[in-house]
Amino acid sequence: MALGVALWLCPKKNTQLYDKLLTLMSSLNTLFPNQPPKFEPHITITTNVDVNLVDSEKTRDDVNKILSASVVALNSLPTNHSNLVTLGKIDSQRKYFKKLYFQVKKDPNLVSLARIIREIFVITPQEIEAENIKINPHLYTTNSKGNTVRRKPSKKHKRSASSASTAQSSTVDIDERTKPIEMQKVQAIAAAKAAEWSSSEFDPHISLVYSDLHPIDNALWRTIKTRVSDYLNVANCDAEGLEDNGLGWDGGVLKLVLCEGDVNDWIVLGSVDLH
């Protein structure tokens, strides 16, 4: 599963819930084979965020822009909740990244934040690229792996100022062939897709363990639930009413994380505290 750059929402470090979750995750890891990787407690707001990873200066600019926009988006939403994040019952799936996790209540503000960021920084760039490939095929080529990629700038465009007139004429030729993208159309498509994604696919959760183990047998489940109940001081950690225990947080920390390769090698590109 390709995650690319993901936007995480984490509880703040050194808070009671952060420390409890981190300790619980370390304890649960010992129950699974092959030393599962360690990671920070978080909710993934969205994956595949569009960040330039080739040019370090552009990477910093993109990261700052996305984090700033995320804060503005969240601050623009109504403050009609006590916790932005509320933990639900413990659950498991066959998937590696959802082997063991807490469900998270789909707070309207949390869903809105995910929809906004998905629309602006994931779907819109994808739609712009798709539209560009369709109406401006001369800007693209096929690489050795059969993938459509942007053509590199012509050598003519890299000439010195002494050849500026020649470079300028080449640029004019390209500009004459290149059709403008209808941004209003692209934005409408992106908004519709983001709304559908936030309704049907966005599944906020807090992963506790990443593992290929399947299935989790009854004996292991009993041990897991006992540890969760003990560490978080809840009577029934898989009850639907776990949300009533008030476990969760408001605010926290937004982080952009490059999720490529081994989990232990993931890189935090930037972060911002929410107040």
TrEMBL record:
Region annotated Disordered, chain positions: 139-177
Bias (Low complexity): 161-171
Compositionally biased spans, kind Basic residues: 148-160
Transmembrane segments: none
EC number, UniProt record: 3.1.4.37
Function: Involved in the metabolism of ADP-ribose 1',2'-cyclic phosphate which is produced as a consequence of tRNA splicing.
Assigned protein family: Belongs to the 2H phosphoesterase superfamily. CPD1 family.
Protein name: 2',3'-cyclic-nucleotide 3'-phosphodiesterase
Source taxonomy: Eukaryota, Fungi, Dikarya, Ascomycota, Saccharomycotina
